[in-house]
Amino acid sequence: MAEVDPAVARLVEELVTARTASLSAEVARLSGEVEALRPRTVADRATIIVFSGDMDKLMSAFIIASGAVAMGLEASMYFTFWGLAAVKKTTLYSGKSIVEKMLSLMLPGGPDDVPSSNMNMLGMGPVMFKSVMKKHNVETLPDLVKVSQELGVRMIACQMSMGVMGIGRDELIDGLEFGGVATYLGDATDSKVTLYI
Q: Most buried by CB count within 10 Å: which residue of 81, 143, 144, 192?
């Protein structure tokens, strides 16, 4: 049997290596395309973006979230802009700019101070609603916040909105997560239920 010329052997090896690398790259590219075509799985999750700062709308958001957990779904609530009032525990002024201090003065101090969306009547509407709720054994908004936390509802405060509204982390209740639009979309994209309240 004749020996193969070393130059020919090197050339064959280089051609095989180049072809193999080319095929490996093509397989990787096609695998990525196939993966992108697979349908996304929908999780047993409800995702709620909480934009409103109105008592009745906030109550609805917490009732839906806790109801979802009771039905076996995971629940996530994303608090943005006015909705951050639902998860405030205090208002602080030190270290804030003049504009942030003015915003802090005008914003509700927490879930017990939010107005109703209708029939607010210079603040008398929420007082009337709370009286009727007590008579009918309906949980208050602060109680709904606590119950939702106890049930394991995931609560995320929007960092961008916190900056715009002049709200610091130390003004919010314990147990919150902090995130942005990517955090919200990561949950919402795979949720069976997605709501904007």
A: 144
With a threshold of 0.90, does the pTM exceed it? no
Neighbour-count burial of 120, counting CB atoms closer than 10 A to its CB (0-12 exposed, 13-18 middle, 19+ buried) = middle
Residue extents of the structural domains in the chain: 1-38, 43-196
| Residue from 113, 96, 112, 116 nearest 104 by CA | 96
> How is domain 43-196 classified at the architecture level of CATH?
3-Layer(aba) Sandwich (3.40)
Tokens representing 104 are 């802090």
Provide the residue type at 36 as one letter. Answer: A
Closest CA to 93 of 178, 173, 167, 160: 167
* Residue 151, C-beta contacts closer than 8 angstroms, at least 6 positions apart: 66, 69, 70
